[in-house]
Amino acid sequence: xxxxxxxxxxxxxxxxxxxxxxxxxxxxxxxxxxxxxxxxxxxxxxxxxxxxxxxxxxxxxxxxxxxxxxxxxxxxxxxxxxxxxxxxxxxxxxxxxxxxxxxxxxxxxxxxxxxxxxxxxxxxxxxxxxxxxxxxxxxxxxxxxxxxxxxxxxxxxxxxxxxxxxxxxxxxxxxxxxxxxxxxxxxxxxxxxxxxxxxxxxxxxxxxxxxxxxxxxxxxxxxxxxxxxxxxxxxxxxxxxx
Length: 242
What we know:
Binding site for substrate: 17-21, 29, 33, 61-63, 65, 67, 184, 190-192
Organism: Allisonella histaminiformans
Enzyme class: transferase
CATH architecture: 3-Layer(aba) Sandwich
Strand order of the largest sheet: 3-4-2-1-5-6
Active site: 16, 64
Pfam family, one: Prenyltransf
Number of helices: 8
Shape: globular
Strand content: 5-15%
Order of helices and strands: EHHEHEHEHHEEHH
């Protein structure tokens, strides 16, 4: 099977390079995180204009707790501030917001802001924006496996009936759609435990551009690159069959 899409339906982005961007300008890493947060709206607006259905942003991984305490505290406050400041725009722009990841260990104020944002945008039927906070791909799959095992234990599901769709159905619902295009800014060429199940056949786009410098035009370049990809899903392209 071979398929070409002019526009991806689900785009995942690893927002990398905020700290280095700040250091290059003689500032602390937190300075870059502030500019990186401001850049999100520009990219989401561009995605909406292009007709992309789902955007999932990797904002804070389960491993990011290892960073300096001051940086982690700054990020938690930044997430909360961003949600409050952007809520009106999200509603106005018909964006539906979801936070994916284990929110149970996040600060209480941030959890409250998350609940308000998700509630106030739940009826929006435009672009779905997932922000991954305290998220890990392996942890998401483990969570799904435990949930499925519990259903088998309780007699709600038989082992024979477990399929690929069963696993997909136990992932975070808003981001369970297969990823068409994964973008990583900042020059690294790895996916860092992000949406491991969903990205199985996704196209991977790595750019040296640091996240605060990743403009809407750079985003459009990535989508244009995707539109020329021949997605074979293990099969042969029409050219190869000749």
